[in-house]
Amino acid sequence: MSLQFDHIVHYVFEPKEMTKELSDVGIQNRYGGEHDKGGTFNTLSYFGLKYIEYLGIKDDQSFEENIPHIKKYSLLSHLVDRRDREGFITMALRSHNLLDLANSLREKGVSANGPFPLSRKTPEGTILSWELLYAGEDDLEIPLPFFIDWGVSDEERRKDLKETGLITNHSKGNLEISTVIFAVHSFDQSFEKWKTYLALEEIEAESNLNEDVECRTLALGDTNLQFVKPLGEGRIQSFLLNHGPGIYQLQFSGANEQEEFVLHNANYRFL
Fold first, then answer.
1. Domains of the chain in sequence order
2. Are 112 and 134 in contact (CB under 8 A)?
3. Cα gap 208→221, rounded to integer Å
4. What is the pLDDT of residue 127?
5. Main-chain phi, psi angles of 64, to 5 degrees
6. How far apart are CA 239 and CA 111, in angstroms?
7. Overall pTM > 0.90
8. CA 130, CA 122: separation in Å to the nearest integer?
9. What is the DSSP letter of 262?
10. CA proximity to 229, closest of 190, 188, 191, 185
11. Mean of per-residue pLDDT scores for the chain
């Protein structure tokens, strides 16, 4: 089961406003398009094949009407109960064989729904299609990511994204998404489950948060998934008290200078 980091979802109230806000901090962002069902739309910031999806609700009525049809463990299932709070929601991992992945997860006792075909209209008016797989179990502290298959090789997709201008240079530096940090109460119901279900390797990596935490890290290709548990007072403990377990911070390598800021209730750090 070969998985790669594909993208992280940052829910914002006004995705189109992100283009200027991100440009002001040296990051390129472009309008992605509207999803054909569900009343959502997005803008996108690419860092090679990895990207951030700034997802918003374009039509409240369409979103409400779609709620009874939302699949369990899907991206939108995480959004339903937190539409009033911006921030990181979840992430997607890329696979080139979702059927095999679904079977592997089911063999481990994980509920898997799909694959399902999806699409959206691009700004040029063409239809972009892909497949998604949703999986999980109810007692996980950090819900599993969802899984995506773009139907083409990584090389083909990189070429297409460069030709359409989605993969481009950022004035902030030669940026790469390097680490996703999760704040957790328990490694048993988060880290251990992800390690087993996704067949990921645990690696030795220290926390760079300058806080009293215990951390464990999984290697996902060239992206690290780091789970941190507070051992005392600090920002991680505060995050857990205010928001519960979830994605605490997104880290980048290759920045021209080190910087950290909160953007629409999500923590970004550039190293």
1. 4-163 (3.10.180.10), 173-270 (3.10.180.10)
2. yes
3. 20
4. 78
5. -60, -40
6. 29
7. yes
8. 13
9. E
10. 185
11. 94
Residue 65 host element (H or E): helix 60-66
Separation of alpha carbons 137 and 91, rounded Å? 16
Give SS3 for 44: strand
The DSSP letter of residue 191 is: H
56-75: average pLDDT: 91
What sign does the CA torsion over 192, 150, 250, 42 have? Answer: negative
Q: From residue 59, give the alpha-carbon distance in Å to each of 16, 75, 85.
A: 14, 17, 17
Of 131, 95, 136, which is closest to residue 112 (Cα–Cα)? 136
236 phi and psi angles, rounded to 5 deg? -65, -45
Residue type, 11: Y
User: CB within 8 A of 100, min separation 6: which ones?
Assistant: 1
Q: Which residues contact 264 (CB under 8 A, 6 or more apart)?
A: 10, 12, 13, 18, 86, 87
- Sole residue written with tokens 């935490």: 213
pLDDT of residue 36: 65
pLDDT tens digits, 75-131 = 999 999 899 999 999 999 999 999 999 999 999 999 999 999 887 777 777 778 899
